[in-house]
Automatic annotation (TrEMBL):
UniProt keyword list: Coiled coil, Glycosyltransferase, Transferase
Taxonomic lineage from the root: Bacteria, Bacillati, Actinomycetota, Actinomycetes, Mycobacteriales
Name of the protein in question: Glycosyltransferase
Pfam family name, one: Glyco_tranf_2_3
Molecular function terms, GO-annotated: glycosyltransferase activity
Length: 658
C-alpha cells in the first residue's frame, strides 16, 4: 500500500479555531486529548473525537472523479481499547455510517469503496474510547501502486516516481522565503521526495542576507539553486522555475538534471502544511490522466478560513469568479464539515448570499484553474504546452489553467491540500498599480480564449470606469487606459515591456492624489462634513432603493464644480468599508484608509480631469470592441512564440547561445 494522506495534528500551541481544521472533540469529554508528535494522539477514557475535518477527512469524491482507484484503505494503530467508526457524507452533507469495530492494542484496516461519491462526499472516522488510548500512524492508503496514465492522444505514460522539483519565486520577502525553505526541510518525508529547489530572487532584499538562510539551504545541499534576475513579476519568476526545471532550451541545465516528473509552484509569502506537498504528489501520480493539482488557500490572518473551493472564468464578462455552488471565505471554526444548518435544506433551495452551513463543501467542485500560491504541474504537461505568458502578474495562472485544459489537461483544486496566504481583503489590488495588470492581462487572456461577442467584457469595463470615477479613483482609470493601449498595441512588445511596465505605471500614479499614501489623516485638518449630513451618515451601506436615489444625487453632485477648499480640508475620513460610490460621489474631498490600515489617500474631485479620463476610456473601449476579432487572431498567432523556452531564454540569458 502507498500512503495518500497522513493523519495530522495541529502544531503545539495552536488556538482552538485552527485545531478545528484537524480534530473535533466532543463537548461531553471531561478531558482534552493531548499529543507530543503531530501523528500520535492520546485520548482519555470515555471520550469521543471526530476527524470530520479539513485536513483529516478524505475528499472521496475527488479521488473517485480523478484517480485510478476504486477503493481506499483507512489504517490506524491503537493502544488501549476504542471503537472506530467510519462515516461518509452525501452531496448534501448527510452523514452515513459505513463500518465500525472495537479494537484493543492492535492495528485496524478498513477498505472502503469510492463508488458512492460520483458527485460529492467525504470519508472520515470517529473514535470512542473505553480506556485511555493512543491513535498513531493513521492515514488513508491506496491498496495498489499507481499505474500508467493516459494522455489526451491515447498514449500511455508513467507510472511516475514520487519526485518533485519545488519552485519558490521571491521578491523582497527574505524572511518569508527562508521560512518556506525551513518548512520544506522540516519534514523528513517531504524532504525525501524533493529532487530540487529552485528560487528565483527578483528583489534587492535578498534571502541570502537573511539569518537562517545558510542553514535552510544547507539542508538541501546541491539540490538548491538560486537565480537572481530583474523584477519580472510572478510570471517571470514562475517561468524561470519551469525553464530551469526543464533544463533550459537544450534540456541540459543543471537545475533540471534530475528530470523531476512534477514541478510544484509555491509563493514565498505563505505558511505551508508540509503534508500538502506529499498529498499533491500522490494525487498527481494516481490520476487517470495527467492533471494540474491545485492547493487551496487558507487565510493567513484568520487561519480557520478557507478562501474558496474552486474558481472558474465567467464567460459573459471573462472575469474569474467562484465555481457554481461555491462561496468565499468559509470559517471552519464556525461551520465545520458536519454543519448542515438548522434546517438542513437541500443545496438548490439555499440562498447563495447567506451561508450558514457547510453543505457546499460536500459537493465536488470542478475548477478551471488554480492560483500559483500552490500548484503542481506534471512535467509532461509543461513540456507539451510551454512556459507561462509574459504577463508580469495577474492572470498568468488562470491562462495556464485554460491552456492546459484546452490541451486535455484539467486542473483539480483539491481539499486538504492547502497553504495559508494573506487574504485579498487586506490588499487594494483592484485600484492600486495592479489594476493595470488586472485589465491588460485579462484582455490578453480573453483574446486567446474568449469565444463569441465581446459585449459582456466591454460592459463590465464601462461599469468599472464609471464606478471608479464616482469613487474619485482617477489614478485607477488612468492606468486602466494605459492597459487598453498596451493591449491594443498587440503581442509583439510584451517581452520588451515585461520589466518596464511597472515603473511606467508607478510614475503615472504619482501624478494623482488618490494614489499617494499619507501616513495618517490626523496630519490633515479635521473633516468639515457635508452641510446638513452627520459625518457618521456619509459612508456605510445602503439598501437597493436608497442606492437609486443616491445614484441620482451622486451624479448631480459629480457633474457640478468642486469646491477647491476641500482640496485642503477633507469633508470626511472614510474607512475602506465606507468608501463606496454612493458616499464618495457626494464629496469633493475625503481621505480613505488603505486596505492594510497603514495609511490614507486623499481623494479629490476634479470634474475636468474626470471628463478627460472618461472620454479617453470610452474611446479606448470602443476601439477594443471594434478590433477585438483582429486582435484575437494576432494574440493567438503569437501565443506559441510568447510561451516558448527559446523566447524566455533571451530574457533569462541575454546574449547567450541557445
Amino acid at each position: 500500500m502507498e500512503k495518500l494522506q497522513r493523519f495530522l495534528l495541529p502544531r503545539a500551541g495552536e488556538p482552538f479555531d485552527v485545531r478545528m481544521l484537524y480534530l473535533i472533540e466532543s463537548e461531553r469529554n471531561h478531558h482534552r486529548a493531548t499529543w507530543e508528535s503531530r501523528t500520535s494522539l492520546s485520548i482519555p477514557a470515555r471520550s469521543e473525537v471526530s476527524f470530520q475535518t479539513y485536513f483529516n477527512a478524505f475528499p472521496a469524491s475527488y479521488w473517485r472523479r480523478w484517480s485510478q482507484l476504486d477503493s481506499v484503505v483507512l489504517r490506524l494503530e491503537v493502544t488501549g481499547t476504542v471503537r472506530v467508526d467510519v462515516f461518509r457524507s452525501k452531496i448534501d452533507g448527510a452523514r452515513i455510517a459505513v463500518e465500525g469495530a472495537v479494537v484493543s492494542n492492535d492495528a485496524i484496516e478498513f477498505e472502503l469503496s469510492l463508488q458512492p461519491f460520483e458527485d460529492g462526499g467525504w470519508l472520515w472516522y470517529e473514535i470512542t474510547t473505553e480506556t485511555d488510548a493512543t491513535i498513531a500512524n493513521a492515514g488513508w492508503f491506496a491498496p495498489c501502486a499507481p499505474g500508467p496514465q493516459t494522455l489526451p492522444n491515447g498514449e500511455k505514460v508513467g507510472p511516475f516516481e514520487p519526485r518533485v522539483t519545488v519552485g519558490i519565486p521571491t521578491f523582497n520577502r527574505p524572511a518569508d522565503a527562508v521560512a518556506a525553505l525551513e518548512a520544506l526541510a522540516s519534514d523528513p518525508e517531504v524532504d525525501a521526495i524533493i529532487d530540487t529547489v529552485i528560487m528565483p530572487d527578483q528583489g534587492n532584499k535578498h534571502p541570502a542576507d537573511e539569518p537562517g538562510y545558510a542553514a535552510a539551504t544547507a539542508a538541501f545541499g546541491d539540490r538548491f539553486f538560486e537565480f537572481r534576475q530583474g523584477n519580472l513579476g510572478g510570471s517571470g519568476g514562475y517561468s524561470r522555475i519551469m525553464y530551469e526545471a526543464l533544463g533550459g532550451v537544450d534540456g541540459d541545465k543543471p537545475a533540471g538534471a534530475k528530470k523531476s516528473p512534477y514541478i510544484l509552484y509555491m509563493d514565498d509569502d505563505i505558511a505551508i502544511e508540509p503534508d500538502s506537498v506529499l498529498r499533491a504528489l500522490q494525487v498527481a501520480r494516481y490520476a487517470k490522466s495527467p492533471i494540474l493539482v491545485g492547493g487551496q488557500m487558507l487565510n493567513l490572518q484568520e487561519r480557520s478560513h478557507l478562501h474558496t473551493m474552486g474558481e472558474v472564468i465567467g464567460r459573459h464578462d471573462f472575469m474569474w469568479t467562484s465555481a457554481p455552488h461555491v462561496h468565499y471565505d468559509h470559517d471552519f471554526s464556525a461551520h465545520p464539515l458536519s454543519d448542515r444548518g438548522e434546517n438542513a435544506n437541500p443545496i438548490d433551495a439555499r440562498n447563495p448570499k447567506v451561508v450558514t452551513d457547510s453543505i457546499d463543501l460536500h459537493r465536488r467542485i470542478d475548477a478551471e484553474f488554480n492560483g500559483w500560491w500552490m500548484c503542481m504541474i506534471p512535467r509532461v504537461v509543461a513540456e507539451e504546452i510551454g512556459q507561462p505568458l509574459p504577463l508580469f502578474i495577474k492572470w498568468d495562472d488562470a491562462e495556464y489553467g485554460l491552456r492546459a485544459r484546452k490541451h486535455g489537461y484539467p486542473t483539480a483544486t483539491w481539499p486538504g491540500i492547502a497553504i495559508w496566504h494573506m487574504a485579498w481583503s487586506d490588499k487594494d489590488d483592484a485600484i492600486d498599480w495592479q489594476a493595470y495588470f488586472h485589465l491588460r492581462n485579462r484582455l490578453v487572456v480573453a483574446a486567446n480564449y474568449h469565444e463569441g461577442p465581446v459585449d459582456g467584457i466591454i460592459k463590465s469595463m464601462q461599469k468599472a470606469t464609471f464606478k471608479h470615477l464616482l469613487c474619485l479613483e482617477y489614478s485607477t482609470v488612468a492606468i486602466q487606459n494605459e492597459a487598453m493601449k498596451d493591449f491594443l498595441a498587440g503581442p509583439d512588445h510584451f517581452f520588451d515591456i515585461l520589466e518596464t511596465s511597472l515603473p511606467r505605471i508607478a510614475a503615472i500614479r504619482k501624478t494623482y492624489s488618490d494614489a499617494v499614501v499619507l501616513p495618517t489623516a490626523a496630519d490633515l485638518p479635521a473633516p468639515s462634513g457635508i452641510p446638513g449630513v452627520p459625518i457618521q451618515d456619509i459612508g456605510g451601506r445602503l439598501a437597493p432603493i436608497k442606492k437609486a436615489v443616491w445614484l441620482a444625487k451622486g451624479l448631480k453632485h459629480s457633474l457640478s464644480k468642486a469646491d477647491p477648499k476641500h482640496y485642503e480640508v477633507p469633508q470626511a475620513n472614510l474607512a475602506p468599508v465606507e468608501a463606496r460610490w454612493f458616499s464618495l460621489s457626494r464629496l469633493d474631498g475625503a481621505t480613505v484608509t488603505t486596505a492594510d490600515g497603514r495609511g490614507v489617500v486623499y481623494r479629490k474631485r476634479n470634474l475636468e480631469q474626470a471628463k478627460e479620463l472618461l472620454n479617453e476610456s470610452r474611446r479606448l473601449q470602443k476601439e477594443v470592441a471594434q478590433r477585438f476579432e483582429e486582435l484575437k487572431r494576432s494574440y493567438r498567432a503569437a501565443h506559441a512564440e510568447m510561451t516558448s523556452r527559446k523566447a524566455w531564454s533571451e530574457i533569462f540569458e541575454p546574449g547567450e547561445e541557445s
